[in-house]
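In this section we walk through a basic example: taking a raw amino acid sequence and producing a predicted 3D structure, encoded as discrete structure tokens. The instruction is simple. Fold the sequence below.
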Amino acid sequence: IQKRWGDCRQHGDIGRMIEEDEMMIFDRIFNRKYIWLIALLAVVSIFSVSCKKSGGADDVSMYDLYQALCNGETTKDLFSDMKYASSSDQNPADVFSNISDMDYDKVTDFFVCYAADGNGNADEVAAIEVKNAADLSDAETSLQAHLDYRKSLYKTYDASQVKKLDDAKIVTHGRVAVLIVSEDPAAVSAAFEEFF
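The resulting token sequence is shown next.
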């Protein structure tokens, strides 16, 4: 800068020199900000990829799953007058104990959609998302036990629903297990696969 100042003073062009210095400073600041922005975006990208791999971003919206299975285009006509309960309810562990006997500490989220009046209607969709994929078999086993219990109840007071319970399906994907009791469990199962 000293040399340039001297050159410009000799030529009488101080204004041009100041303008060039301001532009040089602006370019340096702009380039530094640009480099920092690129670095920040790279860090955010790496973090989001690592979250997906660790399972944090793989969490399923159980409400969206409920909508797809119980109110979706291909399933909405299968269910009528249904109630909904989930891990968002008050005392979720107590609600969960109605569909599963597995340790609630292993559960990330759950929902159950069931017939408001169980007389003459055994329809139910129950979903459990576990924290660890290793516990998925426990979720399946607990849903099967829940299904078996419901079969034993319906055999005693409404045998017309037993076939529906016999045809029930338990499906899984990732860390989610779902029990499907419906007139058309295949349609609900297809909606489940399509959801993922």
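Looking at the output, two observations stand out. The chain is about 55% helix and 15% strand. Residues 50-57 have pLDDT under 50 and may be disordered. In the next section we compare this with other chains.
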